[in-house]
Design a protein that fits this description.
heterodimer, A: alpha/beta, Rossmann fold, six-stranded mixed beta sheet, 7 helices, B: 329 residues, alpha+beta, Alpha-Beta Plaits, 2 domains, four-stranded antiparallel beta sheet, 10 helices, 4 strands
């Protein structure tokens, strides 16, 4: 259902600062919370451009914390993070929005606006970047088509099933063609079949050049995709397979 | 800086300014269309919550209508008082033993003085006739064997401000022919003083009520911010700048203020309409052509711009505070 048209329509190979640089680079990153101690301890890794990688570990292992550091929702206590060639551990506050526009973020709880139509939800990243209305209409429909929800653009999120909501979340994450997609437990609330469907969708994006990083505790699902997997345990990176 | 993609190919230097201009014009166009769209949207939001919005708009309207109506009434009062001022005159009572001829000569002399607009003599006989006509003592006066009234010179000063008038009064008093000098317009000066006090008071209240508008709009925007907290958080995470988040709220503030101001304008004019008829009748009784006037164009513009300024600043202060708070979290 997702291959009705070639994927190159809406998701093209994104422009990069340099093809040689890793798109995500963590160097000895530590994140400590005053209340709960170290959530990440001395984590170093790199994700290459065009890679699809998984981040696994039990809940509380630091997956979400790690993903929250990339859009600077939180800042590391120590260490360096370089995204698309730009060191972001000390990024100025007013620069943060422009970093986030390069990312496609997907959340376990979807984070949709329940009082806005599906169309409006998906259009939000384009409104933020100031696209003109015709352009927005075209791109939003392309993104909705990609996730198979074109016919439901006028619905409100509460009228959708969990899988559909997550597909709206994905459409919103890809509508502005980001070079990097970060998904935090995207299938956490979905049954097996839907979870696999969502994962296949990510693979399709990856096949056209988008870097995808997915945090998931569903090891079975992760194994079936046989991609590089970063394993976190109690805030430490214990293995890459 | 880091995230701005630098152009790979530089065009010829000559083309740079032109290119920059068109891009600036394009950007300005895009900016205008965004502003327009956002204005429409925030108006739509106000329209969709008629009860909550109209409460705010009514309060803004009342807070603005009070000072505006008072101001309009003062403006209206000022006009006839200023008209009276130009008719102010001084009565110079000559010593009773002096004859009309002496008075006439003095009046001629005074006429030539540049600080006076005019001087005319009211003879003893004129005075007696006037007194008889207005006092109702006509018969009693006719019984008098001789005319006890002095000749009076009615002097019109050229400058009517308090200083020059009092200087003039001293001068006139020092004339050897003068018996008594009476400035007929002292009550007018008192009235003007009273008007000035009223004006100041209205101004003070206007400032207070202006702060009221600022706070009302600010508080309404604060509630709106709270209701849309989740939306703002999502927009921020998707890369919205503070400017983007601020915009619709500033526009809401604008709409509350401008709609309130329009309502205030209507209310003020209705108030004027309400008192217009009796005031006009009073003016007619005094034989005055004076008519109560509605809010003037200039005052209307001032009302609208001050209201806009208050609404926008109220919204701005609250949104800025809110954004600082969520940025800190």
């Amino acid at each position: 259902m997702f291959s009705r048209q070639p994927l190159t329509g809406a998701v093209k190979v994104p422009p990069c600062n340099s093809l040689l640089m890793s798109i995500i680079e963590f160097k000895h990153v530590t994140k400590r919370y005053p209340e709960s101690g170290e959530a990440l301890s001395d984590v170093s890794f790199a994700i290459e451009r065009g890679e699809m990688a998984f981040l696994t570990g039990h809940s509380g292992a630091g997956k979400s914390t790690l993903l929250r550091l990339i859009p600077v929702i939180e800042r590391p206590t120590r260490g360096e993070i370089i995204i698309d060639g730009v060191p972001i551990h000390a990024l100025q506050g007013r620069r943060i929005p422009y970093l986030r526009r390069k990312l496609g973020l997907i959340f376990q709880d979807y984070r949709l606006l329940n009082d806005r139509t599906i169309f409006d939800n998906v259009a939000l990243p384009l409104l933020i970047t100031g696209h003109n209305p015709q352009d927005i209409g075209r791109r939003v429909r392309a993104a909705l088509d990609k996730v198979g929800l074109l016919r439901k653009e006028k619905r409100l999120p509460p009228a959708l099933s969990g899988g559909e909501k997550q597909r709206v979340g994905i459409a919103r994450a890809i509508v502005h063609k980001p070079p990097l997609i970060l998904a935090d437990e995207p299938t956490g609330n979905l049954d097996r079949e839907l979870a696999e469907e969502i994962m296949l969708m990510f693979r399709e994006f990856n096949e056209v050049g988008v870097t995808v990083m997915i945090a998931s505790h569903d090891l079975d699902l992760v194994r079936r995709f046989s991609r590089r997997t970063l394993r976190l345990e109690q805030g430490r990176l214990i293995g890459v397979s | 800086m880091a995230f701005k993609r630098k152009p790979v190919f530089r065009r010829g230097l000559f083309r740079m300014p032109l290119q920059a201009d068109t891009r600036l014009a394009d950007r300005f166009k895009a900016y205008l269309s965004i502003q327009q769209g956002s204005l429409k949207q925030s108006f739509g939001r106000i329209w969709q919550t008629p009860v909550a919005s109209s409460l705010t708009i009514f309060v803004v309207a009342i807070a603005l209508a009070l000072p505006v109506s008072f101001h309009a009434l003062i403006q209206n009062a000022r006009e006839p008082i200023e008209a009276l001022e130009t008719t102010s005159q001084i009565s110079l009572f000559l010593k009773p033993e002096l004859s009309n001829d002496v008075g006439r000569a003095l009046a001629e002399k005074l006429k030539k003085n540049p600080v006076l607009k005019g001087a005319s003599l009211m003879t003893k006989e004129d005075g007696l006739r006037e007194l008889g006509a207005y006092s109702g003592f006509g018969d009693a006066l006719a019984a008098l064997s001789s005319n006890p009234l002095p000749a009076v010179i009615i002097v019109k000063p050229a400058a009517t401000d308090a200083d020059s008038v009092s200087r003039l009064l001293v001068e006139l008093k020092s004339l050897p022919e003068a018996d008594l000098v009476q400035f007929d317009n002292e009550w007018l000066q008192k009235l003007q003083a009273l008007l000035a006090i009223t004006e100041r008071t209205v101004m003070a209240f206007s400032i207070l009520l202006g702060f009221g508008v600022l706070f009302i709009v600010g508080n309404t925007i604060r509630l709106e911010l709270q209701n849309r907290h989740e939306e703002i958080a999502i927009a921020k995470i998707l890369g919205a700048t503070n400017h983007f988040i601020r915009r619709p709220f500033i526009h809401s503030g604008f709409w509350y203020a401008i709609l309130g101001a329009v309502l205030a304008w209507i209310v003020a004019n209705l108030l004027i309409l309400g008192v217009q008829e009796p005031v006009n009748r009073l003016a007619e009784l005094y034989g005055s052509p004076y008519r109560l006037s509605f809010l003037r164009m200039g005052d209307t513009l001032i009302l609208l711009s001050i209201a806009t300024l208050l609404g926008v600043s109220g919204a701005w202060i609250v949104v800025a505070h809110f954004l600082r708070k969520i940025d800190a979290d």
